């Protein structure tokens, strides 16, 4: 009897082997391509010291370079703070709204100077409201300071608490060429998935530049002592290999595949 039982079991296994082999091939073809690695602590250690870089996900994961909290020339990124103040705490005039839009979309310095003169406390008020610890106004908006960590904190807060803010909307409709003729097409704005960006640059366009971008589930800001090409190289080298939209830096638990379940593998 034992020999007969063994024979039947062998026939059963041989019959099962063919569909299992076909199923394995099908599952192998249907398996998705391996996802890009998730961004984690330490992944920005290789960024040159000339550049500070900060990243925050919508789930609260934050990664930054060691110098991300350094107060650096804010350039035109501080226009984000002025625009937010003018819209929410200003006199609600159409003129303020038009000036704010020009500041963000075309990085118009004249518009910034008008609003900065009208609301000289705007930058410092934003620093207090959004806990921007490295942000401060100088003698005027153009010599103010901020950090990439502060810029990311501000934008991430706006996305979470005020997603309909015109400030965010104007970032998504930035003009390809700024009011002073500078091309707005570098830095964080080149990251895959970036939907809106604010750029900033020194008068010489090469000694220091900044950019801050928003995307689906993430916010990134960078400041570089150098020109646009330097920043683009540093940002893309550091972040392009990673999945910026990943909800967490914690790896997902392994889930048995259908084939593993059929074969009893756990």
Averaging pLDDT over every residue, what do you get? Answer: 86
Number of helices: 9
- Main sheet: strands, sense, barrel: 5 strands, antiparallel
CATH class of the largest domain: Alpha Beta
The largest beta-sheet arranges its strands as 2-1-7-6-5
Q: What's the total number of strands?
A: 7
Which structural category do the helix and sheet elements fall into? alpha+beta
CATH superfamily of the largest domain: DD-peptidase/beta-lactamase superfamily
Shape: globular
**Radius of gyration (Å):** 26 Å
Using the coordinates shown, work out and report the CATH topology of the largest domain. Beta-lactamase
What is the CA–CA distance across the termini?
33 Å
Tell me the helix content.
40-55%
Q: How many separate domains?
A: 2
User: How large a portion of the residues is in β-strands, by DSSP E?
Assistant: 5-15%
In terms of quaternary structure, what is this? Answer: single chain
Comma- or semicolon-separated keywords:
single chain, 266 residues, alpha+beta, Beta-lactamase, five-stranded antiparallel β-sheet, two-stranded antiparallel sheet, 7 strands, globular, disordered N terminus
């Amino acid at each position: 009897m034992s020999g007969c039982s063994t024979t039947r079991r062998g026939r059963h296994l041989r019959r099962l082997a063919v569909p299992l082999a076909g199923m394995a091939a099908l599952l192998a073809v249907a398996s998705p391509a391996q996802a890009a690695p998730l961004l984690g602590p330490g992944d920005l250690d290789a960024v040159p010291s000339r550049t500070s870089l900060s990243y925050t996900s919508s789930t609260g994961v934050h990664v930054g370079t060691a110098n991300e909290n350094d107060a650096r020339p804010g350039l035109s990124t501080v226009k984000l703070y002025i625009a937010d103040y003018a819209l929410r705490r200003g006199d609600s005039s159409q003129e303020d709204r038009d000036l704010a839009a020009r500041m963000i979309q075309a990085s118009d310095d004249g518009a910034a100077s008008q609003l900065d003169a009208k609301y000289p406390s705007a930058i410092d008020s934003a620093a207090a409201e959004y806990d921007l610890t490295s942000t401060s106004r100088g003698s005027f908006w153009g010599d103010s300071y901020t950090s990439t960590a502060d810029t990311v904190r501000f934008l991430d807060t706006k996305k979470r608490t005020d997603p309909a803010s015109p400030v965010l909307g104007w970032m998504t409709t930035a003009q390809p060429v700024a009011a002073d003729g500078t091309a707005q097409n570098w830095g964080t704005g080149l990251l895959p998935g970036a939907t809106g960006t604010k750029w900033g640059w020194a008068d010489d366009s090469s000694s220091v530049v900044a950019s801050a971008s928003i995307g689906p589930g993430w916010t990134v800001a960078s400041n570089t002592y150098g020109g646009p090409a330097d920043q683009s190289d540093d940002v893309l080298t550091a972040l392009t290999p990673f999945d910026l939209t990943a909800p967490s830096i914690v790896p997902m638990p392994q889930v048995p595949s259908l084939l593993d379940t059929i074969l009893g593998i756990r």
